[in-house]
Specification:
Layout (H helix, E strand, L loop, with lengths): L1 H6 L4 H16 L8 H18 L4 H46 L7 H8 L10 E11 L11 E9 L2 E4 L6 E3 L16 E8 L2 E9 L2 H23 L3
Antiparallel strand pairs: 1-2, 1-6, 2-3, 2-4, 5-6
Helix pairs in contact: 2-4, 3-4, 4-6, 5-6
């Protein structure tokens, strides 16, 4: 395109080849490395600058068509990604609703109902994760100097979406070692820990394998899981 601007010449064959190369560029995911909205804005400015510096002619018309093609593809990609994001959010929300439906305890609370809830942890949709809980819920006051326990209980592990509950004799774990338990599968991007809390109660940590989907729904998911733990373990006062 720049060569055509300098020479004032662009043949139909060159125009077709540039269109083909633009298609290859976008098909190979160039928009994964930049923001589509920024791309459209910057190329719009470049297009305006080029039009201001050139007289209207055949080459400028072809270049404008090529700029329009690139911006159209960027806008299409933005729409596709928005639909994917909305689908992920909807799927995550539906999984949580399914989980909450299965674990509704109708007023019963305590260790037995907590164990029942843990038995349905595979319904929340995480692939690799582990839930660590304190031995009992902790009432936390920000003005309190209370020191949190140095150990937690590993209650369950999700490996590739499959749920494994942990026997009582293997649950004890120092807080400093929650990322190093042998039960956790290897994750390329490592693990991220989310606190589990509801109101004044602290319950523990949810340790999850890091991926793009987690960063989008992790906070929402752990808030809902914390509410489920509260309803099953403590209950409304």
């Amino acid at each position: 395109m720049l060569k055509a601007v300098r020479s004032r010449v662009m043949s139909d064959e060159e125009f077709g080849e540039i269109c083909r190369m633009i298609g290859i560029l976008f098909d190979n995911g160039v928009m994964l490395y930049t923001d589509p909205n920024r791309f459209v804005y910057d190329f719009g400015r470049l297009q305006s600058t080029m039009n201001e510096s050139l007289k209207a002619n055949h080459v400028s018309a072809l270049n404008n068509r090529l700029f329009t093609l690139m911006k159209d593809k960027a806008i299409q990609f933005s729409g596709i990604m928005k639909r994917i994001d909305n689908g992920r959010y909807s799927n995550g929300r539906n999984r949580i609703l399914d989980f909450m439906t299965w674990t509704t305890n109708y007023g019963k609370t305590g260790e037995a109902t907590l164990e029942y809830m843990i038995g349905h942890m595979d319904k929340i949709g995480l692939r690799n994760a582990a839930m660590f809980l304190y031995l009992e819920p902790i009432i936390w006051d920000y003005d309190d100097d209370k020191v949190l326990p140095e150990t937690m209980q590993l209650r369950c592990v999700l490996r590739n979406g499959e749920l494994f509950t942990i026997s009582p004799d293997r649950r004890q774990c120092p807080v400093s070692e929650i990322y190093n338990r042998a039960e956790l599968p290897v994750e390329r991007m490592g693990y991220v820990a989310y606190p589990l809390f509801c109101g004044k109660y602290l319950f523990g940590m949810l340790v999850c394998g890091a991926d793009g989907k987690l960063f989008e729904i992790g906070e929402f998911l752990t808030f809902q899981l914390s509410r489920a733990i509260y309803m099953n373990w403590v209950g409304p006062s």
